[in-house]
Amino acid sequence: MWLLLINPKSGSGRGNKVGKLVKQELKAFGIQYLDVSAGSAQESQENLTSRLRGNQKFEGLFLIGGDGTVNLAVQELVGSGLGMALIPAGTGNDFARTLNLKLKNPEQLIKHYLSSRPSLIDVGKVGDKYFVDVLSTGFDSMVNERANAMKKIKGRAKYNISMLLVLSTFKPKSYRFSIDGFSFESKAMLIAVSNGICYGGGMKVTPDAKIDDGLFDILILSPVSKFEFLKVFPKVFSGKHTTHPAVKISRGRSVEIDSDAVAYADGERVGPLPVKARVIERGLLTWRM
Question: What residues make up the domain containing 275?
Fold first, then answer.
Protein backbone atom coordinates (compact mmCIF):
# COMPACT_ATOMS: atom_id res chain seq x y z
CA MET A 1 0.00 0.00 0.00
CA TRP A 2 1.27 3.44 -1.03
CA LEU A 3 0.17 6.94 -0.09
CA LEU A 4 -0.80 9.36 -2.86
CA LEU A 5 -0.92 13.14 -2.62
CA ILE A 6 -1.92 15.28 -5.59
CA ASN A 7 -1.96 19.06 -5.81
CA PRO A 8 -4.42 19.63 -8.69
CA LYS A 9 -3.60 23.35 -8.81
CA SER A 10 0.14 22.87 -9.40
CA GLY A 11 1.45 24.24 -12.67
CA SER A 12 -1.79 26.12 -13.42
CA GLY A 13 -3.78 22.89 -13.42
CA ARG A 14 -1.09 20.53 -14.72
CA GLY A 15 -1.17 18.73 -11.37
CA ASN A 16 -4.75 17.69 -11.99
CA LYS A 17 -3.96 16.25 -15.44
CA VAL A 18 -0.83 14.43 -14.26
CA GLY A 19 -2.63 13.19 -11.16
CA LYS A 20 -5.32 11.51 -13.29
CA LEU A 21 -2.61 9.87 -15.43
CA VAL A 22 -0.80 8.62 -12.34
CA LYS A 23 -3.98 7.05 -10.96
CA GLN A 24 -4.53 5.27 -14.28
CA GLU A 25 -0.95 3.98 -14.30
CA LEU A 26 -1.09 2.80 -10.69
CA LYS A 27 -4.28 0.89 -11.48
CA ALA A 28 -2.63 -0.63 -14.57
CA PHE A 29 0.35 -1.72 -12.47
CA GLY A 30 -1.95 -3.17 -9.83
CA ILE A 31 -0.60 -0.83 -7.16
CA GLN A 32 -2.84 -0.20 -4.18
CA TYR A 33 -2.79 3.33 -2.78
CA LEU A 34 -4.52 5.56 -0.27
CA ASP A 35 -5.26 9.05 -1.59
CA VAL A 36 -4.70 11.74 1.07
CA SER A 37 -5.32 14.65 -1.31
CA ALA A 38 -7.83 17.24 -0.12
CA GLY A 39 -9.41 20.53 -1.12
CA SER A 40 -6.63 22.64 0.40
CA ALA A 41 -2.93 22.37 1.12
CA GLN A 42 -3.58 22.49 4.86
CA GLU A 43 -6.10 19.64 4.70
CA SER A 44 -3.75 17.54 2.57
CA GLN A 45 -0.94 18.10 5.08
CA GLU A 46 -3.22 17.18 7.97
CA ASN A 47 -4.29 13.99 6.18
CA LEU A 48 -0.67 13.06 5.51
CA THR A 49 0.28 13.71 9.13
CA SER A 50 -2.60 11.57 10.35
CA ARG A 51 -1.60 8.62 8.18
CA LEU A 52 2.07 8.85 9.11
CA ARG A 53 1.20 8.79 12.80
CA GLY A 54 -1.13 5.82 12.41
CA ASN A 55 -0.24 2.16 12.78
CA GLN A 56 -0.45 1.30 9.08
CA LYS A 57 2.81 0.90 7.19
CA PHE A 58 3.23 2.26 3.67
CA GLU A 59 5.76 1.58 0.92
CA GLY A 60 6.17 5.24 -0.01
CA LEU A 61 4.43 8.44 -1.01
CA PHE A 62 3.66 9.26 -4.62
CA LEU A 63 3.71 13.06 -4.69
CA ILE A 64 2.29 14.92 -7.69
CA GLY A 65 2.89 18.68 -7.72
CA GLY A 66 5.52 21.39 -7.74
CA ASP A 67 7.99 22.77 -5.25
CA GLY A 68 5.27 24.12 -2.96
CA THR A 69 3.78 20.63 -2.71
CA VAL A 70 7.23 19.19 -2.02
CA ASN A 71 7.75 21.74 0.76
CA LEU A 72 4.40 20.78 2.30
CA ALA A 73 5.20 17.06 2.26
CA VAL A 74 8.77 17.43 3.50
CA GLN A 75 7.55 19.03 6.73
CA GLU A 76 5.92 15.68 7.57
CA LEU A 77 8.36 13.25 5.90
CA VAL A 78 11.64 14.31 7.54
CA GLY A 79 12.66 11.59 9.96
CA SER A 80 9.59 9.47 9.16
CA GLY A 81 11.42 6.78 7.20
CA LEU A 82 8.84 6.98 4.41
CA GLY A 83 10.26 7.57 0.94
CA MET A 84 9.00 10.30 -1.38
CA ALA A 85 8.40 9.40 -5.03
CA LEU A 86 8.06 12.76 -6.77
CA ILE A 87 6.25 13.13 -10.07
CA PRO A 88 6.82 16.79 -10.98
CA ALA A 89 3.82 18.79 -12.14
CA GLY A 90 4.60 22.34 -11.07
CA THR A 91 5.78 25.54 -12.68
CA GLY A 92 9.39 25.54 -11.45
CA ASN A 93 10.08 21.92 -10.48
CA ASP A 94 13.44 22.83 -8.95
CA PHE A 95 13.61 19.90 -6.55
CA ALA A 96 12.96 17.56 -9.48
CA ARG A 97 16.04 19.08 -11.14
CA THR A 98 18.05 18.57 -7.95
CA LEU A 99 16.95 14.90 -7.93
CA ASN A 100 17.89 14.66 -11.64
CA LEU A 101 14.40 13.48 -12.57
CA LYS A 102 14.77 13.76 -16.32
CA LEU A 103 11.99 11.34 -17.18
CA LYS A 104 8.93 13.35 -18.17
CA ASN A 105 6.49 10.47 -18.59
CA PRO A 106 4.66 9.52 -15.35
CA GLU A 107 4.65 5.86 -16.43
CA GLN A 108 8.45 5.83 -16.72
CA LEU A 109 8.85 7.48 -13.33
CA ILE A 110 6.48 5.03 -11.65
CA LYS A 111 8.41 2.11 -13.19
CA HIS A 112 11.64 3.62 -11.91
CA TYR A 113 10.28 4.03 -8.39
CA LEU A 114 8.85 0.51 -8.26
CA SER A 115 12.10 -1.06 -9.46
CA SER A 116 14.60 0.88 -7.32
CA ARG A 117 15.22 1.88 -3.72
CA PRO A 118 15.09 5.37 -2.20
CA SER A 119 18.15 6.94 -0.58
CA LEU A 120 18.69 9.35 2.28
CA ILE A 121 19.49 12.98 1.50
CA ASP A 122 20.14 16.10 3.57
CA VAL A 123 17.59 18.79 4.27
CA GLY A 124 17.95 22.29 5.67
CA LYS A 125 16.15 23.53 8.75
CA VAL A 126 15.37 27.19 9.44
CA GLY A 127 13.41 27.86 12.60
CA ASP A 128 10.96 24.98 12.85
CA LYS A 129 10.63 24.55 9.07
CA TYR A 130 12.51 22.29 6.66
CA PHE A 131 13.67 23.11 3.13
CA VAL A 132 15.25 20.96 0.43
CA ASP A 133 16.63 23.43 -2.09
CA VAL A 134 17.45 27.06 -1.24
CA LEU A 135 17.05 29.55 1.60
CA SER A 136 17.49 33.02 0.14
CA THR A 137 17.48 36.67 1.06
CA GLY A 138 18.25 39.88 -0.80
CA PHE A 139 17.17 40.75 -4.31
CA ASP A 140 15.27 37.55 -5.07
CA SER A 141 13.34 37.66 -1.79
CA MET A 142 12.28 41.21 -2.55
CA VAL A 143 11.07 40.00 -5.96
CA ASN A 144 9.07 37.27 -4.22
CA GLU A 145 7.55 39.83 -1.86
CA ARG A 146 6.50 42.05 -4.76
CA ALA A 147 5.20 39.12 -6.83
CA ASN A 148 3.13 37.74 -3.96
CA ALA A 149 1.41 41.11 -3.67
CA MET A 150 0.25 40.86 -7.30
CA LYS A 151 -3.15 39.18 -7.33
CA LYS A 152 -4.32 39.77 -10.89
CA ILE A 153 -1.16 38.68 -12.72
CA LYS A 154 -0.45 34.94 -12.71
CA GLY A 155 2.38 32.58 -13.59
CA ARG A 156 5.90 33.43 -14.65
CA ALA A 157 4.94 36.91 -15.90
CA LYS A 158 4.40 38.34 -12.42
CA TYR A 159 7.93 37.37 -11.37
CA ASN A 160 9.46 38.91 -14.48
CA ILE A 161 7.50 42.13 -13.89
CA SER A 162 8.40 42.11 -10.19
CA MET A 163 12.08 41.67 -11.02
CA LEU A 164 12.11 44.79 -13.18
CA LEU A 165 10.19 46.81 -10.59
CA VAL A 166 12.47 45.77 -7.73
CA LEU A 167 15.66 46.33 -9.72
CA SER A 168 14.65 49.91 -10.54
CA THR A 169 15.00 50.95 -6.87
CA PHE A 170 17.17 48.15 -5.47
CA LYS A 171 20.14 48.92 -3.22
CA PRO A 172 22.50 46.37 -1.62
CA LYS A 173 22.19 45.88 2.14
CA SER A 174 24.73 45.23 4.87
CA TYR A 175 24.56 41.71 6.30
CA ARG A 176 26.07 40.02 9.33
CA PHE A 177 27.03 36.38 8.84
CA SER A 178 28.18 33.47 10.94
CA ILE A 179 29.16 30.28 9.10
CA ASP A 180 30.06 27.41 11.42
CA GLY A 181 30.93 30.00 14.06
CA PHE A 182 33.09 32.22 11.81
CA SER A 183 31.55 35.71 11.85
CA PHE A 184 31.93 38.51 9.30
CA GLU A 185 30.03 41.40 7.74
CA SER A 186 29.51 42.17 4.08
CA LYS A 187 27.34 44.17 1.75
CA ALA A 188 25.43 41.93 -0.64
CA MET A 189 22.82 41.96 -3.35
CA LEU A 190 21.79 38.33 -3.10
CA ILE A 191 22.42 35.46 -0.67
CA ALA A 192 21.55 31.81 -1.25
CA VAL A 193 22.00 29.08 1.35
CA SER A 194 21.68 25.96 -0.74
CA ASN A 195 21.09 22.31 -0.09
CA GLY A 196 20.11 21.74 -3.72
CA ILE A 197 21.40 23.23 -6.94
CA CYS A 198 18.64 25.54 -8.13
CA TYR A 199 15.59 27.65 -7.45
CA GLY A 200 13.31 30.08 -9.26
CA GLY A 201 12.44 27.67 -12.07
CA GLY A 202 15.86 26.41 -13.10
CA MET A 203 18.30 29.05 -11.87
CA LYS A 204 21.42 27.00 -11.00
CA VAL A 205 22.50 29.33 -8.22
CA THR A 206 24.86 26.75 -6.69
CA PRO A 207 25.53 24.23 -9.47
CA ASP A 208 28.06 22.18 -7.49
CA ALA A 209 25.90 21.70 -4.38
CA LYS A 210 25.33 18.11 -3.27
CA ILE A 211 22.29 16.96 -1.33
CA ASP A 212 24.15 14.29 0.61
CA ASP A 213 27.44 15.91 1.69
CA GLY A 214 26.24 17.37 5.02
CA LEU A 215 27.03 20.92 3.88
CA PHE A 216 25.27 24.00 2.57
CA ASP A 217 26.71 25.84 -0.42
CA ILE A 218 26.41 29.51 0.60
CA LEU A 219 26.51 32.03 -2.24
CA ILE A 220 27.05 35.73 -1.57
CA LEU A 221 26.82 38.20 -4.46
CA SER A 222 28.72 41.37 -3.59
CA PRO A 223 27.41 44.72 -4.91
CA VAL A 224 27.73 45.37 -8.64
CA SER A 225 26.19 48.02 -10.86
CA LYS A 226 22.68 47.38 -12.16
CA PHE A 227 24.11 47.14 -15.66
CA GLU A 228 26.59 44.49 -14.51
CA PHE A 229 23.87 42.67 -12.58
CA LEU A 230 21.74 42.44 -15.73
CA LYS A 231 24.78 40.99 -17.55
CA VAL A 232 25.54 38.42 -14.85
CA PHE A 233 22.03 37.38 -13.83
CA PRO A 234 21.07 35.45 -17.02
CA LYS A 235 24.15 33.24 -16.52
CA VAL A 236 22.57 31.78 -13.39
CA PHE A 237 20.44 29.51 -15.60
CA SER A 238 23.59 27.78 -16.85
CA GLY A 239 25.54 28.05 -13.59
CA LYS A 240 28.27 30.11 -15.29
CA HIS A 241 27.76 33.09 -12.95
CA THR A 242 30.02 31.43 -10.36
CA THR A 243 33.18 32.61 -12.17
CA HIS A 244 32.27 36.28 -11.70
CA PRO A 245 34.57 38.03 -9.17
CA ALA A 246 31.59 39.38 -7.20
CA VAL A 247 30.31 35.84 -6.54
CA LYS A 248 31.68 33.99 -3.53
CA ILE A 249 30.60 30.50 -2.49
CA SER A 250 31.44 29.07 0.93
CA ARG A 251 30.42 25.79 2.55
CA GLY A 252 29.22 25.11 6.06
CA ARG A 253 26.88 23.07 8.24
CA SER A 254 25.20 26.04 9.87
CA VAL A 255 24.70 29.69 8.98
CA GLU A 256 23.25 32.74 10.68
CA ILE A 257 22.28 35.86 8.71
CA ASP A 258 21.08 39.19 10.04
CA SER A 259 20.00 42.38 8.31
CA ASP A 260 16.96 44.51 7.59
CA ALA A 261 15.57 42.02 5.07
CA VAL A 262 13.28 39.02 4.64
CA ALA A 263 14.05 35.40 3.81
CA TYR A 264 12.35 32.75 1.69
CA ALA A 265 12.97 28.98 1.67
CA ASP A 266 11.91 26.87 -1.31
CA GLY A 267 9.71 29.77 -2.42
CA GLU A 268 7.87 29.93 0.92
CA ARG A 269 8.13 33.02 3.11
CA VAL A 270 10.24 32.47 6.24
CA GLY A 271 9.98 36.04 7.51
CA PRO A 272 12.29 38.86 8.61
CA LEU A 273 15.94 38.28 9.43
CA PRO A 274 17.76 37.22 11.58
CA VAL A 275 17.57 33.57 10.56
CA LYS A 276 19.52 30.51 11.62
CA ALA A 277 19.76 27.50 9.32
CA ARG A 278 21.47 24.16 9.76
CA VAL A 279 21.87 20.96 7.78
CA ILE A 280 19.91 17.92 8.90
CA GLU A 281 22.07 15.12 7.52
CA ARG A 282 20.29 12.17 5.91
CA GLY A 283 16.96 13.57 7.07
CA LEU A 284 14.78 12.71 4.07
CA LEU A 285 14.24 9.42 2.25
CA THR A 286 13.52 9.98 -1.43
CA TRP A 287 13.89 8.38 -4.83
CA ARG A 288 16.23 10.07 -7.31
CA MET A 289 18.06 9.30 -10.53
Answer: 130-280
